[in-house]
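Before the break, one more example. Copy the sequence into your notebook; we will annotate it together after we see the structure.
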Amino acid sequence: MEDFWEFVEYIEDDFGYLPVPRNIIRDMQNPLEKYNDNELHQRYRFSRNIIENAPPINQRGLPIPPIVKLCTALRFYASGSFQRVIGDTGSMSQSATHRVIIEVSNRLAANLARYIKFPEGNNFNNRNLF
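Here is what the structure looks like once it is written out:
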């Protein structure tokens, strides 16, 4: 134990202070760069074009890149897996994964009417469904 304190004194004498450990910023891999078109469609069930043209999602501070947010949510929808498992594949915590899924889901729901059209009038009623 005495050796430890001698080491601390040595560091303080040389630097005048104890160095503060730095936070490590995680490197988020962009799925669009990582996967080809077929792999991207298999994992997220959407084409590269649809994912690239999605509306941007932004957050202050050290945000999760918007494309990673979208791909995380799409992976959750496509696999039906647990949030912790989905987060582990993207190096995110379960709580961050949850926030991402909620945010993307709300944005998709807000734009629902632009992309999903239901038949109007008697056109739907006259179809033979069975």
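Residues 94-110 form the longest helix (17 residues). The two ends are 81 Å apart (CA to CA). Try to locate both features in your own notes.
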